[in-house]
Structure formats: structure tokens, C-alpha cells
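[audit] Reproducing an earlier prediction to check determinism. Same input, same settings, fresh worker. If the C-alpha cells differ from the archived copy the diff job will pick it up downstream; this log only records the rerun itself.
[audit] input (195 residues):
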Amino acid sequence: MTTEPTEPTGSAAQPGSAAQPGAEAVQEEGTALSWLREHSELGVCVLLFALGLLVLTDAFTMSVDIAQRGPVGPRTVPFVIGGLFLLISVLLAGDVLRGGRGEAEGGEDVDLDEPADWRTVLLLTGVFLGAAVLIGPLGFPIAGALLFWGSAYALGSRHHGRDPLIAAGISLATYFVFDNLLGVPLPGGPLMGVL
């Protein structure tokens, strides 16, 4: 059984009393907070928009005199990524304001009662740190191949003949795209004369 609040009687209900404006302010604040709670996805929109502005600002201030080789250079990818961040933030904000809501854990195949797989997390962390340390002395093609192969191994792939070949191919393709096509110099290491 619910009861509705009744109007207070006595001196507190008189016009001009100090209790009346405070109660209205609390009620207005409560409705604003409840509206923000119902539209909390707008925080993600603001974050994406700010990130897009940051990426675009950084792209506009980037010095590209040395690395520019034609119309596609080091600024191209930041312009595309920053523009996509802005577009996605505006589209998501429009969807949220029209009543769209994300599905909470319903569409994911995740068992929240299971503990985290720390072995995989630690293996991936080790692979990333190892690649960061080895990229200087060994160059990107070798360090990238170790990064891709180690990541595949950490995530459960056990094809010891196929995985290193695929990792080397992806690493070499990435090196050629960045170094030759985009003009972003990557360290070649001992393979610098060969590649």
C-alpha cells in the first residue's frame, strides 16, 4: 500500500516560508539526477567527442615535413580516426536521446561467476613488453612477428608451424605499408639492408 505525501500544515506550508524553496530545489535536483542516470550513456558520448577533438587537434599540429611522400601521409589516419570518433559520438548521443539503451550483459557469452584468466593476461602483457623492448635492437619486422605469434599463442592458438609464418607475413606487410606507402619510418633492425 502506497501513501502519497500530504501538504504540511501549520507555519511550514505558508507562502514565503523558508522550507518551501528548499524542497522545490531538492525535487528539481532529484529529477535532474534521475534524468542523468537514465541517460548515463551520454557520458560515453562526451568522452568520444573529447577524444575525437584531441586526435584532430593533434593531427592539425603534427609536423609532417620529413615524412610526407604524396597525398597520403602520417596525418591521414589521425584525421580519419578523429572524424570517426566525432561521428560516432554524435550518432550515439542521438540514439540515447531518442530512448536507445545498451543491453546489459544479456548479449554476451560471459560467465560472471568464473574468475579472470590471469595466465592469458600475464602472457599478453609479457609479449607486449617484450616487443617494446626488442623493437629497437631487432627492428619492427622481427619484433612484430614475435608480438603477433606470442599474442596468438597467449590467446590459445597451438599451430606451431602455421602461426609463426602468418605472424611474419603480417609483420612484414605492416612494415611495408607504414615504411614505404605511408612514409612512417619504422626501425628495420638487422633486416634493414635486405628489406
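[audit] rerun output stored. Observation attached for the diff report: Residues 131 and 147 are 6 Å apart (CA to CA).
[audit] end
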